[in-house]
Design goal:
The complex is a heterodimer of chains A (124) and B (358).
Chain A lengths: L9 H26 L31 H22 L1 H28 L7
Chain B lengths: L3 H15 L2 H38 L15 H10 L11 H20 L2 E3 L2 E2 L6 H9 L1 H12 L3 H32 L4 H6 L6 H4 L1 H18 L11 H4 L9 H25 L13 H9 L2 H22 L5 H29 L4
Antiparallel strand pairs in B: 1-2
Helix pairs in contact in B: 2-12, 2-14, 4-5, 4-6, 4-12, 6-7, 7-10, 7-15, 10-15, 12-14
The chains are: A mainly alpha (124), B mainly alpha (358).
Chain lengths: 124, 358
């Protein structure tokens, strides 16, 4: 049981906070729709460009320069998730667990070093 | 020290006396939602003014001075102006995703906002995996930004969103690792637990060198995750106009702006929670009189004071350093912050298992 303010369960509070966010955005948009001016012209619907019409489709294939970074991110993010339970109990588990986690980290860092050496960490 | 749970307990008792329990719970949820809504809006306004004043002061300008005494009413004029502007949607946008994006961005910032330790006995979301929950929900914001850039169907927004995505996912790792370092020292992930563990000394002072290193890494990484300071590449205005929110207008754009400033408050709040003791007053061992005086200051003031102080540091960094290039930004994270953070985590684990902290 994770009780929060008023002794209500935290899960209920997450829902409350999420609804608050939705209300805030929806409220602001509705107010703006009601009081804002409206006008329609052809040019207004064009995407922003530096003075000339946009050439081609903007939702096109795009060179994602950080594809490799995304993969590395996934690796290290999952690693962080694995480490959280150990970190919480670090004091009780003692040096044995530290050794195990150290081995785990060394293997991961070897992976990072390999990616580094291969030039994956260079922005292209 | 004043404990807010006595007030909430009294309200709870009074409400349960006059209405059935489900209605009482609903009323209390509405009260909390109202608090969140008001605190969110008011803090955003304060922060926008705060930034403009600090920026003016650092750049030897005067900042806003015309509207109201000392320019203090400027923000109301801005809010009113932005609310009465037309919301433009382009003919080529993906309408559903275009409208969904600000919801996701604000949702992420409100959920992390609700996790902050507001004061003694006043904690809106309090899981036993508190900081983990914060990391999890703050990732929703990246989705919102990527969607905003993609659905606008403009080349500037697309490039801005892609850069923003690369930056936010990279620096999220360093934020995670520095939080992990603190969790290692505290032995708990719950936010109340983290604050209470700092009653006899803040983690910044308790954890020797590793805590200080984690603090510095956190400041750099949080700055970058917020797309602020020297890391504001996603909105580099001379090359990308306004980055991922180029095509948003009026309050639609204002919501992104709001979330950005609230995220600044949230990262300052998390920094004060993790390293500066949350709402705990400053205690110096052996100085009884000093400690007693410090105890008189309400806990909410302590928390807000620390958050504002951290914000000042973030603003100081923002207005002092020139913008970095994208390859420098990624090299800083992957070649320096990440390896240093991992080594720092191991050092902290050794310190904790050997009992070298106090």
């Amino acid at each position: 049981m994770d009780l929060s303010v008023f002794g209500i369960e935290s899960t209920t509070m997450v829902v409350t906070a999420a609804l608050t966010a939705v209300t805030l955005v929806a409220g602001a948009l509705i107010i703006a729709f009601l009081v804002g001016p409206r006008s329609y012209t052809d040019m207004k619907g064009e995407p922003y460009e530096c003075g000339i019409p946009t050439r081609g489709e903007s939702m096109a294939q795009f060179h994602v320069g950080y594809y490799l970074f995304a993969i590395l991110f996934l690796m290290f993010d999952v690693e962080t998730v694995f480490l959280f339970p150990w970190a919480t109990l670090c004091r009780e588990l003692g040096s044995g667990a530290l050794l195990a986690v150290g081995t785990f980290l060394v293997i991961l860092v070897l992976g990072l070093a390999y990616a580094w050496k291969k030039g994956a960490l260079r922005w292209k | 020290m004043f404990d807010l749970s006595s007030v909430t307990g009294w309200i709870h008792g009074w409400l349960s006396g006059i209405m059935p329990s489900w209605l009482a719970t609903t009323t209390e949820c509405v009260l909390v939602a109202l608090f969140l809504l008001i605190a969110y809006s008011v803090l955003a306004m304060i922060y926008i003014m705060y930034e403009r004043w600090v920026c003016g002061w650092i750049q030897c300008r005067r900042g806003p001075i015309r509207v109201g005494p000392g320019g203090s009413l400027q923000i109301f004029a801005d809010v009113f102006k932005i609310l009465t502007k037309e919301i433009i949607t382009l003919w080529s946008t993906d309408k559903f995703l275009f409208f969904l994006a600000p919801f996701l961005v604000v949702l992420a910032s409100v959920l992390t906002f609700a996790c902050l330790p507001w004061g003694k006995g006043f904690q809106v979301i309090d899981f036993n995996i508190g900081v983990f929950f914060i990391i999890a929900v703050s990732s929703i914001g990246v989705l919102g930004i990527l969607l905003a850039g993609w659905s606008s169907n403009s080349k500037y927004t697309l490039i801005g969103a892609m850069r923003s995505g690369a930056q936010m996912i990279s620096y999220e790792l360093s934020v995670g690792i520095s939080i992990l370092t603190v969790v290692c020292l505290a032995g708990t992930m719950s936010i109340t637990g983290l604050v209470e563990a700092q009653a006899d000394g803040w983690f910044l002072f308790k954890g020797h060198l590793p805590a200080v290193v984690a603090f510095i890494i956190y400041i750099i990484a949080a700055n970058a995750e917020n797309n602020r300071g020297p890391f504001d590449l996603p909105e580099a205005e001379h090359e990308l106009t306004a980055g991922y929110h180029t095509e948003y207008s009026g309050i639609h754009y204002g919501l992104f702006y709001l979330a950005e400033y609230l995220n600044l408050f949230v990262v300052s709040g998390i920094a004060s929670l993790l390293f500066l003791g949350g709402w705990m007053p400053l205690h110096i061992p052996g100085w009884e009189g000093f400690n007693a005086v410090m105890d008189y200051i309400p806990s909410t003031l302590w928390f807000l004071g620390k958050a504002f102080f951290m914000t000042f540091i973030f603003m100081w960094i923002r207005w002092s350093f020139p913008r970095v290039r994208i390859d420098q930004m990624l090299a800083l994270e992957w070649r320096y912050l990440m390896p240093i953070g991992l080594v720092n985590l191991v050092v902290m684990a050794v310190v904790v298992t050997q009992g070298w902290y106090f």
